[in-house]
Amino acid sequence: MIEARSVDYVMIDLIRVGGITQWLKVAGMAEAFNLPVVSHVIPEIHAHLVAAVPNGLTVEYMGWMLQLFDGTAALDKSELLLSDRAGLGLAFREEIIQRFAAAS
């Protein structure tokens, strides 16, 4: 699709593409063709990926998905502010984990 120039932007799904390394490879391919990249769900990780590439355009923001984590990017005036914590800066919220834990 990129080589055929049949898209105006490339929407990359982290899970479907095979992880962070593959996501970055597709973003690099898109950059070679001067195409912007956007994300598909998983904003807690995609915020970092879109910010890391020169052709990153937008992050699909799904606030309901962010309830699982502490340390997600804060939304301020339609902009995502990344955490300065190490790595992706995420930690599971213990109360959410307990809520869905299987009985032992």
Q: Which features does this protein show?
A:
3-stranded parallel β-sheet; two-stranded antiparallel sheet; 32% helix; 4 helices; 18% strand; TIM Barrel; 104 residues; elongated; 7 strands; alpha/beta
Helix content: 25-40%
> Beta fraction of the residues?
15-25%
| Mean residue pLDDT | 90
What Rg is obtained from the alpha carbons, in whole angstroms? 16 Å
- Under CATH, the topology is which? TIM Barrel
Net shape = elongated
Category by helix and strand content: alpha/beta
The largest pleated sheet is described as: 3 strands, parallel
**What is the number of independent domains?**
1
What's the β-strand tally? Answer: 7
What is the C-level CATH assignment?
A: Alpha Beta
Biggest β-sheet: strands ordered side by side in the sheet: 1-2-3
H/E element sequence:
EHHEHEEEEEH
Tally of alpha and pi helices: 4
- What is the architecture at the second tier of CATH? Alpha-Beta Barrel
Structure description:
The chain is an alpha/beta fold. It has a single domain (10-99), classed as TIM Barrel. 32% of the residues lie in helices and 18% in strands. It has helices spanning 14-17, 20-32, 43-52, 94-99, and strands spanning 10-12, 37-39, 56-58, 69-70, 74-76, 79-81, 91-92. The strands form three sheets. A three-stranded parallel beta sheet has the order 1-2-3. It has a two-stranded antiparallel ribbon with strand order 4-7. It is elongated, with a radius of gyration of 16 Å. The chain starts with 9 loop residues before the first strand and ends in a 5-residue tail after the last helix.
